[in-house]
Amino acid sequence: KPGGLLLTRFGIADKDFTAGNHLRYSLQNTSADIYSTNIMMKGGGYHFDVIGNDWVVENIRLNMGGMHNVENVTVAIAIAKYLEIDNDKIRDAVAGFKGVKRRFEYVIDLAEAEKLKHNIVYIDDYAHHPEELKALITSAKSLFPKRKCTVIFQPHLFSRTRDLANEFAAALDLADEVLLLPIYPARELPIDGVNSEMILKKMDNKNADVITPELLLQYLSSTYLETVAKSSYGQLLITAGAGNIDTLIKPIKEIVEKFS
Q1: pTM
Q2: Do 156 and 170 contact (CB within 8 A), yes or no?
């Protein structure tokens, strides 16, 4: 619209944009009109500044993981500045943002984990594609590099598992331990020879297994917690998938808290 503002991600190809006021944002590229800088990982989140052409918002605190979320906040702050929102209000809003449900959602965050006997940070995510899984595990491990990372993953759809088994295996290999639940079929009927074992067989990580939800809860309340008790730095636990794995979040959290 005349007099409006167009924001695009720095680096994407221009598509004959005709906006008179066109700004490009970036995670860290200083050639962009708006970018984040001085990014530090701390306490399961990020501290950083955002710089625009004629403004700066310093000391931003984002209480969620994933560098892609830092980038999302960078462009959100650019919009807020365009709307002339006060810097203190912007900082407070970002610090108070709890994220989108099941997107790098802290079921038990660092502050809560450190009060528990077993010191387990628990993250849940809707990730059901290999690239999403890769981003999730990479981001989580970068925030908690000293913690053993256990991923509980429920594949979604037989066709997706069949078509992307190699990619799923490569993404899951980034974790220290992997527990694969049976495939969630959603709208599909079973496909011959396609199951969670298909991913398992393609993984290099030998600390991985296929497990039912019932046996998973038994494992977490016994062997897993016994292993955690021997750790000096606590543990990182992740559930991921787009099926009914979300029904396990509450019982898993109760296991971690009950035995702490």
Answers
A1: 0.79
A2: no
**Structure-token match 């046996």, residue found:** 215
Q: How far apart (Å, rounded) are the C-alpha atoms in residues 84 and 80?
A: 6
How many residues comprise the chain? Answer: 260
Q: Is 65 in contact with 53 (CB distance < 8 Å)?
A: no
State in Å, rounded, how far the first CA of the chain is from the last one.
57
At residue 197, the 3 state secondary structure works out as helix
Order of all β-strands in the sheet with 45-51:
6-9, 22-26, 34-42, 45-51, 56-62
Q: Residue 142 is inside which H or E element, if any?
A: helix 130-143
- Please answer whether residues 140 and 65 qualify as being in contact, where contact means their C-beta atoms are separated by less than 8 angstroms: yes
DSSP per-residue codes, 217-244: HHHIIIIIHHHHTT-SS-EEEEEE-SSG
pLDDT, tens only, 104-117: 899 999 989 988 88
C-alpha dihedral sign at 218, 151, 111, 100: negative
**For the sheet containing 120-125, what is the strand order?**
105-108, 120-125, 235-240, 148-153, 177-180, 208-210
Q: Which residues touch 135 (CB under 8 Å, ≥6 apart)?
A: 66, 68, 127
| Nearest by Cα to 255 from 116, 103, 104, 111 | 116
CA distance 253 to 221: 11
* Residues 171-198: tens digit of each pLDDT: 999 999 999 999 999 999 999 999 999 9
Report CA Rg, the chain. 21
The 3-state DSSP class for residue 127 equals: coil
**Looking at this protein, which amino acid is placed at residue 166?**
N
